[in-house]
Write a structure and sequence with these properties.
The complex is a heterodimer of chains A (about 300) and B (about 150). Chain A is mainly α. Chain A is built from 17 helices and one strand. Helix content of chain B is about 25%, strand content about 30%. In chain B, the strands form two sheets. Chain B has a four-stranded antiparallel β-sheet. A three-stranded antiparallel β-sheet of chain B has the order 4-3-5, with no helix packed on it. The chains are: A mainly alpha (about 300), B alpha+beta (about 150). Chains A and B meet through helix 6, helix 7, helix 9, helix 11 and strand 1 of A and helix 1, strand 1, strand 6 and strand 7 of B.
C-alpha cells in the first residue's frame, strides 16, 4: 500500500498568483546575482549620464542581463569597469557624483567576483560603501553653512521645478513662475541685475529647515548602522536596512536622483542576508518610482488635451 | 580588498574637498556627495562677457561653439581655462549691428557681410558669476567671482 503524499502548507508554485511567483523567484536569487542585475539595469536605464560612452556600456549590460552565465563573469565586469574608468579619466574625475558612485560600485562587483567568497566580499564592500557614503554626505552637509541654515533646500524649493509639487503647498504657481522669471533676469548674459527678489513663504522655509535637519539625522544614522555592523563583525543590520528602505521611499521620490537610488538599492540588496529585506528594499525602490512617475506625468497637458 | 571601493570613494571625497575649497569645484561633481547642499553649483554659475574695442566695452553673449569649454569652467574654473575662453572670445568674428543692438558672434553668418561692419576687437573679458541666497529675505544676489582678460590672438 502506497503512503499518501506529504502535506505541505504552501500551495504548489503553479497555483500561486503571478506576482507571488515573481516575488518568489526574486527571493530565491542569490544576493550577488540580484545586486549584479540591479547594477546593470541602473547603467542601462540611465543612458543620459554616459553620453556616447553608453555605446560600449549598452552591449555589456544587455549581455549580462540576458545571459546568466555572463552575469558573474569577471571579464564582463572588467570590461565594464575599464569603460567607466576611461570615461572618468577622460573627464578628469569631475563627472557627476552619481556617475562616480555607480562606477565605484561596479569596481566593487569586479573585486568580489575575483575573491574566494564573492558574496561575503561584496557584502563587506556594500556595507562599507553605504557607511562611507552616508557618513561623508552627512559631514559635508553639516559643514556647509548654506545647508545648515536651510538656504540650500529653500533655494531649490523656490526655483527647481523638481520640487514644485511640494512647493505648491506654500506658494502659488504664479509665484513659482515669477521666481523663474526673476532668476532668468539675473543670469541673462546681457542683463544688468545683480540681485532679485524671490517670492517665498515662511512655511516653506520652515519645511526646508526641517528637511535639512531630517536628512542629516537620517544619513548619520545610516552611516552608524552600516559601519557599526562591520566593526562588530555582525551580519547585515536590520535597522540599517529599515532606514535604507525609509531613505529610498522618502528622499528620492522628491529629490529625483534615480541613479543614486538604484545604486544604493543594489548595495542594500548585496548586503541583506535575509531575502525579506532584499524584497523590501526592491519594493521601496519601485514604490518610490511609482509616485515619481505620477509626479512627472504631464497632467496639465493631458487634462488640457481632454478638455480641449 | 573588500574595503578598496570604500577607500576609493573616501579618496574622491577628500579630493573634492581640496578642489572645492581651493579652486571652487562645484558641488555635485567629483564624488564630494554634496548634491543639494548649496545654491552655488555648476548649473547656477553664469557668465558675463565683454569685448574691448577702441570705442569702449561691448557686452556680448559667449559664442555657442564655446559652450563645452564654458561648462567645464563652470564645474572647475581654473585660471588657464578662463584665459583660453577669453582669448577664444576675442578671436571670434564679431560684427557691429548698430547702436541699438549688441554685437554678436557671427561665425555661422560669416558669408553675410551685409549684416554689419566687422568689429575691431582688441581683447575680451569673461566673468564667471555665482549666487548667494539669503533665506531670511528670499533675496538672490549674484557676485563676480572669477574673471580673465585676453588680447585678440
Amino acid at each position: 500500500m502506497s503512503s499518501p503524499p506529504p502535506a505541505t502548507l504552501a500551495p504548489p508554485e503553479r497555483h500561486r498568483h503571478p506576482w507571488r511567483r515573481g516575488f518568489g523567484r526574486l527571493a530565491r536569487q542569490s544576493r550577488l546575482t540580484l545586486a549584479a542585475r540591479l547594477t546593470l539595469a541602473t547603467l542601462l536605464l540611465h543612458r543620459g549620464l554616459f553620453g556616447h560612452w553608453f555605446l560600449p556600456i549598452a552591449p555589456l549590460g544587455v549581455a549580462g542581463l540576458l545571459a546568466p552565465a555572463l552575469l558573474r563573469r569577471r571579464t564582463l565586469w572588467a570590461l565594464l569597469v575599464l569603460v567607466l574608468v576611461a570615461f572618468n579619466v577622460r573627464h578628469g574625475g569631475l563627472l557627476r557624483d552619481d556617475v562616480l558612485f555607480v562606477s565605484v560600485w561596479c569596481l566593487a562587483v569586479l573585486v568580489a567576483l575575483g575573491a574566494h567568497r564573492p558574496a561575503a566580499v561584496l557584502d563587506t564592500s556594500a556595507r562599507s560603501l553605504l557607511g562611507v557614503t552616508f557618513g561623508v554626505s552627512a559631514l559635508v552637509k553639516l559643514w556647509t553653512p548654506e545647508f545648515r541654515s536651510g538656504a540650500a533646500y529653500y533655494f531649490f524649493f523656490l526655483l527647481d521645478e523638481r520640487f514644485a509639487p511640494l512647493s505648491r503647498f506654500f506658494v502659488t504657481d504664479r509665484e513659482l513662475g515669477g521666481n523663474l522669471e526673476q532668476w532668468g533676469r539675473l543670469v541673462h548674459p546681457l542683463g544688468e541685475a545683480t540681485s532679485v527678489q524671490l517670492a517665498g513663504s515662511p512655511g516653506l522655509l520652515a519645511l526646508a529647515r526641517g528637511a535639512a535637519a531630517g536628512t542629516v539625522i537620517l544619513e548619520a544614522l545610516l552611516a552608524v548602522a552600516f559601519l557599526a555592523s562591520l566593526a562588530a563583525r555582525r551580519r547585515s543590520p536590520r535597522w540599517g536596512n529599515a532606514l535604507l528602505a525609509l531613505f529610498l521611499l522618502t528622499v528620492f521620490p522628491v529629490a529625483r536622483v534615480t541613479p543614486f537610488s538604484w545604486t544604493l538599492c543594489a548595495m542594500g540588496v548585496a548586503q541583506a542576508t535575509d531575502s525579506r529585506w532584499r524584497l523590501t528594499l526592491l519594493a521601496t525602490l519601485f514604490l518610490g518610482q511609482i509616485p515619481l512617475s505620477l509626479w512627472l506625468a504631464p497632467w496639465n497637458a493631458v487634462a488640457g488635451r481632454i478638455l480641449g | 580588498m573588500a574595503w578598496l571601493p570604500a577607500l576609493l570613494l573616501l579618496g574622491l571625497a577628500a579630493r573634492h574637498l581640496v578642489l572645492a575649497r581651493g579652486h571652487g569645484l562645484s558641488a555635485g561633481r567629483g564624488g564630494g556627495m554634496a548634491v543639494f547642499t548649496t545654491p552655488d553649483y555648476a548649473a547656477t554659475r553664469f557668465w558675463r562677457c565683454y569685448l574691448i574695442t577702441d570705442g569702449g566695452e561691448h557686452r556680448v553673449r559667449v559664442p555657442g561653439e564655446l559652450r563645452a569649454l564654458q561648462e567645464r569652467l563652470e564645474v572647475l574654473p581654473d585660471p588657464r581655462g578662463l584665459t583660453t575662453l577669453a582669448r577664444r572670445v576675442a578671436g571670434a568674428s564679431w560684427s557691429d549691428h548698430g547702436p541699438d543692438l549688441p554685437p554678436r558672434a557671427r561665425p555661422a553668418e560669416a558669408d553675410r557681410p551685409t549684416q554689419g561692419a566687422t568689429l575691431q576687437v582688441r581683447a575680451a573679458r569673461v566673468e564667471l558669476w555665482r549666487l548667494e541666497f539669503d533665506p531670511a529675505t528670499a533675496r538672490l544676489a549674484a557676485s563676480r567671482w572669477r574673471e580673465a582678460t585676453a588680447e585678440r590672438p
